[in-house]
Amino acid sequence: MQKVIIVGAGPAGLLLAHYLLARKRYQVEIYERRPDPQRVELSSQRTFPLSLHMRGLNAIRTIPGLEAALVKEGVWSGATLLHGKQGKARRIDRKLPLLLIDRNQLIRVLIQQLLKHYGEEALTIQFDCTCTDVDPDRRTVTLHEAEGEPFTASFDYLVGADGVRSPVRDALVARTAMQCEQSTVPDVYKSLFVRRVSPDHSSELAADCIHSWTIGRNMRVLMAPLPGDWLHGVMIFPHNKNPLEGLTSADAVRDFFQEKCPALAPLMMVEDAEALRLRPISKILTVTCDRMHVGDRILLIGDAIHAVSPSVGQGCNASLQDAQVFAQLLDQYQDDWSRALPEFTAQRLPEAHALRALSDYTFPRSKTMVLEFIFRLIVVKKLRRWFPQLGKPLPMELIMETELPYTQVLHQTQGWIDRVRQSILVQGLEPSTQAERMSSYPSSTSPRLGNDNAANS
Ligand SMILES: Cc1cc2nc3c(=O)[nH]c(=O)nc-3n(C[C@H](O)[C@H](O)[C@H](O)COP(=O)(O)OP(=O)(O)OC[C@H]3O[C@@H](n4cnc5c(N)ncnc54)[C@H](O)[C@@H]3O)c2cc1C
């Protein structure tokens, strides 16, 4: 048995553990910084809803029983309702339904299913245990338990699945030729939780739709229904324009929602409004790297290596796909990691770079392009059923309704992506303005510095 250490029990690391253990030739040790989600009350954790599309769902389906277990904790959604200020809503139907699931529920189910199928001889998961360093030459990781002395663990293979702030990636950038760039997206968000039905049952929002409101320029509220008649969502706004700034009471927050989101306001109780007002603002970081493996023994997957803005809801889908693709390569190369790893980078890096461009430039920011976007999504999309020659689909349609690789989606919609990028440049909202370089990333290979790179790949 060869020992694989996975750092990070997020969606990517846990799904890869399922794939590796199913091969029956690896012993897997997972180290996770946070507490065991099975023992922590859901409400006390930072969480948000994830939408899983075909790409992520296909990666899950390959593991027997996993999809059925996840569906029990999620909600299928076939449409988005765009709510207006006057209370009217426009419905955008989706060809393929997506599964909405709370991030921590997804994690819980992935862990429960692992523990159900594999005993301690094959799998250990250590929570409250943070990785702080990696020595690729000695094949060791340094770990710190919440209470206790630091210790080292040795590995045959290492997987960095430790999210956007990945210490594994940082250690590899410091110690090897690997290069990465981290940027801050100009938008920030606050999480929002309300009941789906008002206490007196006089107001409710549809249980099978995502709900969306435009509350100002480049400001949106998105709410997803989840089991137990909850709506979990986010309020997204530019980092320097917090619409709740200056609101000093829960009533003021509710008045704001009454004006901007009248269909949502009756569901917002005083305690929900106060919690929203006091909740800290979350920043969104993105990561772009020049490879997804180091040497013959170290793999990086998920947000650790390709975190993107959540605007098109693909970060988790792509992270789950990483696990599936790597397992396919292990099949192809009979578990020879020295051949599977470079091939993984060759296949997945162009996908990661294309997803980055799609996530940054799918949603328009100028008023005219926003109007065009809505018109094309609602009117042109319907007309295209009878007149297929009517205009090209928008990136969002191809991302949501096909299983095309991200590189092909980008290639087919490059015109739109270039226009959005241009309008963002004009407004000075380009994410690169806030780039924090972790290590110099050659501009000739950076997808953000030249979209053509991703489109051509
Ligand atoms: C508001 C919001 C909405 C989103 N919506 C969607 C969506 O609808 N659809 C979608 O596909 N994606 C969405 N995403 C993106 C999605 O959440 C991520 O892409 C996905 O969680 C990445 O999975 P991961 O396993 O790579 O990383 P993570 O989920 O970040 O998991 C990494 C794990 O590693 C652990 N860790 C970190 N450092 C250490 C350490 N030093 N030692 C040990 N453990 C460590 C962390 O605690 C964490 O559990 C959204 C993101 C946000 C912020």
> Largest sheet, if any?
9 strands, mixed
How far apart lie the N and C ends?
Answer: 37 Å
- The whole-number mean of residue pLDDT values reads 89
User: How many domains, as an integer?
Assistant: 3
Q: What percentage of residues falls in helices of 4 or more residues?
A: 25-40%
The CATH class of the largest domain, by name, is Alpha Beta
> What ligand molecules are bound, each kind once?
flavin-adenine dinucleotide
Write the layout of secondary structure elements.
Layout (H helix, E strand, L loop, with lengths): L1 E6 L3 H12 L3 E6 L17 E4 L1 H8 L4 H6 L3 E9 L5 E14 H15 L5 E4 L2 E7 L4 E6 L5 E4 L2 E4 L6 H9 L4 E16 L13 E8 L2 E8 L3 E9 L11 H11 L9 H9 L3 E8 L3 E2 L3 E3 L2 H4 L8 H18 L4 H25 L5 H17 L11 H7 L4 H7 L1 H14 L8 E2 L14 H5 L1
Parallel strand pairs: 1-2, 1-10, 2-6, 4-12, 10-17
Antiparallel strand pairs: 3-5, 4-5, 7-8, 8-9, 11-14, 11-15, 11-18, 12-13, 13-14, 16-17
The structure holds flavin-adenine dinucleotide.
The site of flavin-adenine dinucleotide has 33 residues, from helix 1, strand 3, strand 7, helix 8 and helix 9.
List keywords for this structure.
457 residues; alpha/beta; FAD/NAD(P)-binding domain; 3 domains; nine-stranded mixed sheet; six-stranded mixed sheet; 15 helices; 37% helix; binds flavin-adenine dinucleotide
Characterization of this structure:
- By secondary structure, this protein is α/β, with parallel strands linked by helices.
- It folds into three domains: 2-74 and 102-183 and 287-356, FAD/NAD(P)-binding domain, CATH 3.50.50; 185-283, no CATH class; 363-431 and 451-455, no CATH class.
- 37% of the residues lie in helices and 26% in strands.
- Strands 3, 4, 5, 11, 12, 13, 14, 15 and 18 form a nine-stranded mixed β-sheet that branches.
- A hairpin with a 5-residue loop joins strand 4 and strand 5.
- Helix 1 runs parallel beside helix 4 (103-117), helix 2 packs across helix 9 and helix 6 crosses helix 7.
- It is globular.
- Residues 432-457 have low confidence and may be disordered.
- Flavin-adenine dinucleotide is lined by residues 7-13, 31-34, 48, 50-51, 103, 130-131, 161-163, 167, 189, 234, 302-304, 310, 313-317, 319.
